[in-house]
Amino acid sequence: MSSAIAPIRTAGIATGLALAALLVLTFRVPASSELLGAGLRITAMAPGELHVPSSDAFLKMGKLTPGGEPAQASLPLRNVTSGPVDVRVRAQMATHELDRAVRVELRSDGQKIASGTLADLRHWTRSLRLERADERTLRVRAWIPAGTDNTIGRRVAAQLELDAKLVKPERR
């Protein structure tokens, strides 16, 4: 009796393996030619002297690739004091993931406020003067230069800290 069961057992095992292989091939995730990029998310934290429209991220980019399209966003700033203020910016980040890989440029009305790496942006930028009740737009552009390695799948969340100093009137 056992000699008659052996071929059935072998056929059962072969059928099971074939079925398992078929399931693996059917439900596999197809390969993609699309390059997984780095992720960048920027929020702004304004002091009481300035108004920014939202505390949500004003720049979100999930596919920054070396040599690829830059991420761009605008942040409106409004002086809500009774006099002019000098505004400086710096970035705060919890990690150093993309500090040297991501390049950032900050501009307002054609004036370059800062240009360099994310690591450079950890230091205060040049000042931007906002007169009383003045509104200016801070334009942020971020990219990864061609030839930069080790950025795929990395993520960084940066918070732009804005500092506003009230300009004291000159004494005569």
Write up what this structure looks like.
The protein is mainly beta and 172 residues long. A hairpin with a 2-residue loop joins strand 6 and strand 7 (111-117). Helices cover 15% and strands 41% of the residues. It has one helix at residues 2-26; strands at residues 38-45, 50-51, 59-64, 71-79, 85-93, 103-108, 111-117, 128-130, 135-143, 155-166.
Q: What does the secondary structure layout of this molecule look like, with pairings?
A:
Blueprint: H1 2-26, E1 38-45, E2 50-51, E3 59-64, E4 71-79, E5 85-93, E6 103-108, E7 111-117, E8 128-130, E9 135-143, E10 155-166
Structure summary, number of beta strands: 10
Indicate the proportion of strand residues.
35-45%
Largest sheet: 5 strands, mixed
Radius of gyration, in Å, reads: 27 Å
Shape: rod-shaped
Number of individual domains: 1
Span between termini: 116 Å
Q: What is the overall pLDDT average?
A: 89
CATH topology: Jelly Rolls
* Helix-strand makeup class: mainly beta
Q: Give the uncertain stretches in residue-range form.
A: none
By DSSP (H or I, 4+ residues per run), the number of helices equals 1
Order of helices and strands: HEEEEEEEEEE
CATH architecture: Sandwich
Query: What top-tier CATH class fits best?
Result: Mainly Beta
Overall helicity: 10-25%
Quick synopsis:
With 172 residues, the protein is mainly beta. It is 15% helix and 41% strand. It has a single domain, classed as Jelly Rolls.
